[in-house]
Amino acid sequence: MRNYEIKTDLHTHTLASTHAYSTLEENCRGAFANGLEGINMSDHGPSMPDAPYEGHFSNMRILPEYIHGIKVWKGAEANIVDYEGRIDLTEHTLGRLECIVASFHEQTFKAGTVEQHTNAYMQALKNPKIHILGHSGTAQYPYDHDTVIKEAARLGKAIELNEATFHVRPSSIANCRKIIAKCKKYGAFISVDSDAHFSAFVGVYDCARKLLDELDFPQELIINRNAETVSKWLKELAAASEN
Ligand SMILES: [Zn+2]
Ligand SMILES: [Zn+2]
Q1: What is the pLDDT of residues 87-133, one digit of tens each?
Q2: Ligand nearest, relative to CA of residue 13
Q3: Which pLDDT tens digit goes with each residue over 143-167?
Q4: Which CATH architecture has domain 8-242?
Q5: Ligand 1 mean position, distance from CA 118 (Å)
Q6: How far apart are CA 13 and CA 196, in angstroms?
Q7: E strand or H helix at 132, and its extent?
Q8: Cα(45) to centroid of ligand 2, in Å?
Q9: Could you state, in order of their start, the residue ranges of all structural domains in the chain?
Q10: Would you say 158 and 133 are in contact if contact means Cβ atoms under 8 Å apart?
Q11: What's the CA-to-centroid distance between 77 and ligand 1, angstroms?
């Protein structure tokens, strides 16, 4: 099997999302033990029932840049809440955050038509504060893969390959395979993330690695290869949004 370099994890939960079970320090120790260089702290945006309030996110700037040897980006897994791709964090808070994963969740997003899901993703991609579309293979939210993935490629945004999907959303695996194959076809970045809810699983990508290998996925399209590729990418996206 090909030995892909994936030394960061841009989608992790702490116990600030109460259906997750580790602290930020524990996640950093877990990340270090699993050979990572950096993690994005991405708890659920405030509209999820288990989420912290907005101040959790706007106050994250008090955290150190490195914790237990791990670079920590201050982020969120924002909820896309409507078919216009709006998310549940204010501009003020978003201005203080570094890396935003935007996802559909059944608690905060009503399943609609393929066109409505596609439009929500297209609008979300236009938002300069959104960097990654999270677990987009979720079976109840089909969308037009070609349209959305081409646009992600054009804008330099990332589509997520989510390890947790293989364990908790098995009905979505076939979709994930199709989506990642389209990312290869259109040259879109992917972010390989654990979506870990416990520290031992931060940076563990056993099923995702197998899929990448099967698809002979190009290493250079994995945006979270290491801390440097992530920091450079975030800087480039920020600069592009100012032009
Ligand atoms: Zn999620
Ligand atoms: Zn998550």
Answers
A1: 999 999 999 999 999 999 999 999 999 999 999 999 999 999 999 99
A2: 2
A3: 999 999 999 999 999 999 999 999 9
A4: Alpha-Beta Barrel (3.20)
A5: 18
A6: 6
A7: strand 132-133
A8: 10
A9: 8-242
A10: yes
A11: 7
